[in-house]
Structures are given as structure tokens and as C-alpha cells.
Amino acid sequence: MHKTATKLADGRELVYYDQESGTVRDTVDERPLEAAASLSETRLDPVLGEWVTVAAHRQQRTYHPPAGECPLCPSRDGRLSEVPAADYQVVVFENRFPSLALNSAAHVTAREDDPLRTLRPGTGRCEVVCFAPDHDASFADLDEAKARLVLDAWTDRTAELSALPEIRQVYCFENRGEEIGVTLAHPHGQIYAFPFVPSRTTRMIRRAEAHRADTGRNLFEDLLAAERAAPERLVLRGEHWTAFVPFAARWPYEVHLYPNRRVRDLTELKEAERAEFPGLYLDLLRRFDRLFPAPAGSAPNRTPYISGWHQAPKDGGDELALHLELFTIRRAPGKLKYLAGVESGLDAFVTDVSPEAAAQRLRDAAAH
Ligand SMILES: [Zn+2]
Prior knowledge:
The chain has helices at 144-162, 199-215, 219-229, 271-290, 341-346, 355-364; strands at residues 2-7, 13-18, 41-44, 51-54, 90-94, 119-121, 125-130, 169-176, 188-194, 234-237, 241-244, 253-259, 305-310, 323-328, 330-332, 335-336. It is α+β, with helices and mostly antiparallel strands.
């Protein structure tokens, strides 16, 4: 993997990731762009003890632009986008409309004196990861070498962002599909570098610490061993990775992908694990697309999904195991699972698809 870091016209960082060493990326961003101030703040919910990010300035962000104005396509034919080069393989840049930004501290003052109204600047970083230059492609269309390049980019961003003193946890994820709320059709994901440990991660770590106290063992290692021993929820079993539907899946189709060797984060994966990941992940994504029939016409089915890497925070959380969680909100053709009263109100999920039946359908969705 070859990396070239540069700056956009407004000072934001942009990094090209290329397969070939020696690739030259020296195109200058010629747009007249003013540096944007971030007014983000994080407020502590005094009842739940969870941080909420307030990013009111994001209301102005780009919303469903026509394909000819896509800000993630390469800059071509006199049209200047967020990526100055006329072509690229994988590129990462700071979001122009970030929920969290390192310069928030310059514009928002922390308030720590009132436990009911604790507020801090939304200090962090939000990045966009473009998976391919082709506007109409999808992650599942990548070949293994390009998917590997994305894995290498995620890994590099995790290392770089974790090194920032303000950052406590790095989350690499993809939202795919309008049903999920994606406003740009171009194949891309995002990275959030948080100044706090989000509550779901904290809950996982607490459960794992309790399991260690009770049994002397690691929760995730026990979980993986149990799922590998009983095939009813297994979807894919590689030499270095295992994919299964969790016992208490929340979503209609949900798969968790773990390296067989427990590691804290992407930076700890070894070459053999990195080499096997692209084939397994692409297989999973393509199975998701085969779950539902293609719409009328020639377009393939694109199942909407969310896919995200759960990584240990950089300080503490040693019991957490790196894993990827992939799920769709589609429960049947044309039908979505909405988070309604009990889920939104109480975080108590009800699912309509049994996890074992979901695993069977995903196993049956293999390529023929
Ligand atoms: Zn595009």
C-alpha cells in the first residue's frame, strides 16, 4: 500500500491510498474554499450517562446531489470535486461537514461545573473513505485487491487517529443505501474518531470484564468457540475468520465477523488475517445482495446495510475483541425494520426473523 497525504484548499487533510508504490498524486485543489468552523459540542445525558453530539452546523450539508455533481467522484472534465485527482483507487479526507472536529475547541467552551449540564467541545475527527472512483459501483463490486486496499486504509486511519491525544476510540463504518439515510450514492464509508468511548462499547467492555471475573476467561473467545462448535448460526468459516449470526441478533439479517485470534483493533491483525479478510467480506456482502430479488429492470438488488468495525478504545478495554458487525434493516422485499416504540423508547429490540433461519438463508445465498 502506497500512501500520499496532501491538503485540500480549505486546509483539510486528504490521503490517497494506492496499490502501486511510486504512484504520484500531486494535483492541487483549485477550488476557492473557506475553512469551515465547527460548532460541534458533546453534551452528557445526566440520566443515562451517555454523550450526545450536537452538530447544528451540519444542516447545510450536501443532500442527494445529482450524479454529475457528486463531490466524491474524481475531478474530471473541468468539474472540481472533493478529490482533486482525475482518478484514484481509495482516498480518505476530512469531512467538510463534520459532526466532530479538532477545531471545535476554538469555538465552543467546555462546561464541567454543573453535573446536570456537562458540555464539551465536539473535539474529534470525521473522515470520508471513498472505496472506488466509479460512481455506480458498490463495495461488493470491488475485487479482492481493492477491498484489501480499503482494509489497509482503515488500518492506517485507525493508527493515525488513535495517535491524536484528543481521540479515545476510532469507528470505521459504511452506511449503504437510501433506506439507511445515505445522502451520497457514491461508494463510500466514514470514520468517526471520538473524544469519548461510546456507550455501546462501554457496555460490551463491562460485560467482558464481568465474564472474566466470573470465569477467568475472555467473553469473546468463549463466544467464538461456542459458535464455531455449533453450526446452526455459522455463515462462513475461514482459516483466520469466522462469520456467524449472533444468538440474540437485533436485526432481520445480522452477521458478526471475528478474527479467530483475538486482537484489540485493526492495527494488530497479521498478514495472513489481512490476506483472508477481503474474500470473506466480499462473499458476505454479495450474500446480502442475494437475500432479496432484484428490482424490475436490469439493476441488481442492493440490500441496504450498515457495516462497522468494533475496536477497543486506545486506553483500556483490553477485553474487547475486534470484530465487524454487518446488518440490514430490510426484513422482506419492500419491507424495512423500523426502530419504533420499544426499540427507540426502551432500546428493547423485537426481531421478526429467527437468527437460525437468517443464518440458513445466508448460507443458502452462496454464489452458484
Ligand atoms: Zn460519485
